[in-house]
Amino acid sequence: MFMENDRQDVAVIGAGAAGLAASIFAAEAAAREGLSLKIVLLDGAKTLGAKILVSGGGRCNVTHDVVSATDFFGNRHIIKNVLAAFPVQATIEWFASLGVDLKREETGKLFPVTDKARTVLTALVNRCYELGVAICLDHRVAEVVCLADSEGGFRIHHTHGTLSVKKVILATGGRSLPKTGSDGFGYELARRLGHQVNTPAPALTPLVLDETLFHKDLSGISQEVELTTTVQGQRVDRRTGSLLWTHFGISGPVVMDASRFWTGAHEKGEAVELCVNFLPALTQEVARQWFIEQAAEAPRRSVTKTLARLVTERFAESLCRYLGINRQTAIAQLPREDRDRLRAALTKFRLPVQQDRGWNYAEVTAGGVPLEEINFRTMESKLVPSLYLVGEILDCDGCIGGFNFQWAWATGWLAGKAL
Ligand SMILES: Cc1cc2nc3c(=O)[nH]c(=O)nc-3n(C[C@H](O)[C@H](O)[C@H](O)COP(=O)(O)OP(=O)(O)OC[C@H]3O[C@@H](n4cnc5c(N)ncnc54)[C@H](O)[C@@H]3O)c2cc1C
Hints:
Structural class: alpha+beta
CATH architecture of the largest domain: 3-Layer(bba) Sandwich
Largest sheet: 7 strands, mixed
Bound molecules: flavin-adenine dinucleotide
Number of domains: 2
CATH topology of the largest domain: FAD/NAD(P)-binding domain
Strand content: 25-35%
CATH class of the largest domain: Alpha Beta
Distance between the termini: 21 Å
């Protein structure tokens, strides 16, 4: 039983995915060695695992079939080493050992067979209780003081008093979805302990477009596109995937994955442009030829009916209206100048992005404590001995598809084992 004034061995701050995993792995490793390790898991939230419960649309996309460092942003050399230490197969087996079988979907995403995030949370929490981890909710940590006395360790100031521990695992997450408790204060705790924090920016977030664009008319429609992000005139990202038009702008996997480049540049005040190619399967030259062939093959077919062979008719209509081109015009009658404008808009359309949707909609945080300040074999801080950092607080963000949880499990495993 956890007593507030007991001296504990380990305090894990943050009972999200990474904190729960680290607690379990630490307790299991100690049990294997026949050691008794007193672990206390502190979380400021009043209820457990809010973010796990909302993840993956309430189904929790636990990991991905194939995970590599290229699915992440940050120091890829370090990320690669962390991922190699706890690969996907280890995640699958670990969850099976907790009674959670995973299934693979066509996209490569892995979900619990129950399709319920609650299954994942319950399994993690039950395992903590089985192992004797003391979980203290409503215990928000305000300060972690590194003790310089002969015993070393840390003093933790939280909502209900103080606690002395030998080791600390900081698992406070980032700033995404602050109402779950991850409001970025963990960065301040890390900073006060001497760590740097690379400027956090929302990632995996939808983007808001200038309301004069046609996105509202297309709300709910998805299409395959190629999205290119240019910062200060340099291309920083190019990816293909599904773009979803919404009432406020754009979303969908390709937008979410690219958003970190837009938000990062915007945060730094750099000039950033997002361009879409709505015909990702065609090169410029093939697209040009295609228009000429269509005019020859079916000269009286309207512009929108012609375009509907490549994109949805609704999108074709909206684009024509936006460009001031009469959609009923027969394709062969379309002036060359309009044909060129149409082709240019279809293959290189500059999106008028106004802002991202902010922390309440971002699924993850780009930026955080630099990975170079961590020993990637143990997740121990290189600056503060006996302090470990795991999960989203670190400067590593993954693409959509289960990668961010894989990072949480892998870093949790490394820290737990090292303890
Ligand atoms: C809507 C949404 C859907 C998502 N879906 C997926 C998905 O399907 N697959 C995937 O891989 N990723 C998904 N993610 C991302 C994933 O949830 C996170 O990357 C992951 O949860 C990070 O885990 P963490 O333990 O590092 O941080 P968090 O889960 O954010 O946990 C941090 C914990 O620390 C606590 N805390 C913070 N500060 C303090 C303090 N000062 N004192 C005490 N406690 C504190 C918080 O209350 C919180 O419980 C999603 C994210 C969101 C927002």
